[in-house]
Amino acid sequence: MANREEKRVAILALSAQGQNPSEISKNLRVSRQTVYRTLERGTATAPKRMRTKPGRPTETVEAVKIAINEKNAKATVRGLAREFNMPRTTMRRLVKDDLGLKSFKRTPRHALKSTDKEKRVAGAKKVVILHLDETPFSLGEMVTMDTGFYIAEACGDADDTTVHYGKERHFANLQVIAVVGSDGQKCDLIFLEDGQRLNSFTYVEFFEKKSLPVGKSNIWRIM
């Protein structure tokens, strides 16, 4: 076509003859977007022709709705797609977007009797859980972390009736040095204090101060 006006006239003329936008686009070699825009504007001689609305046809939506009601809500998307001869994804959008339905999934529950429910409620009221929200503290030779909790029959009970359950408990760190000579002579155990770490320097220091005097009767060779 020579110009836009000739294209517009040709599009409107073919539309008046009953051709759809896809056929007009193929015959005139123009994009379908151009055909849609030209038909939406329209003229006095060619009435305005709106673009087809996206989505599923209303007749199909109503037919699917009736089929679901007849099946007593036991229909599946796969079965409906096979029945209406359409893709499963299209049927899923139709059921979800157009009908506003979603799949029903049965939630399993405990088969409790009325007596079991009453026992659970009574047990829950009897036990009071007090969560510990403090920094870790030392208790004897054990280190109790702040992830434990206490169980008591009621708030304000005495300490001897309260039971503590620690989720994470471990013994305090302890480092000790033991030296045994070649003749079987033993040195007293050397316990490291808190904050001390055993390395090459502290090992030589403890060896010279405490282990070496014990072996004076023997020949010790220090490399």
Automatic annotation (TrEMBL):
InterPro entries: Homeodomain-like_sf
Main location: nucleus
Classification via SUPFAM superfamilies: Homeodomain-like (SSF46689)
Intracellular or extracellular location(s): Nucleus
Pfam families in alphabetical order: HTH_29
GO cellular component: nucleus
Source superkingdom: Eukaryota
PANTHER family according to UniProt: PROTEIN CBG27172 (PTHR46068), TRANSPOSASE IS30-LIKE HTH DOMAIN-CONTAINING PROTEIN (PTHR46068:SF1)
Protein name, entry field: Uncharacterized protein
Organism: Caligus rogercresseyi
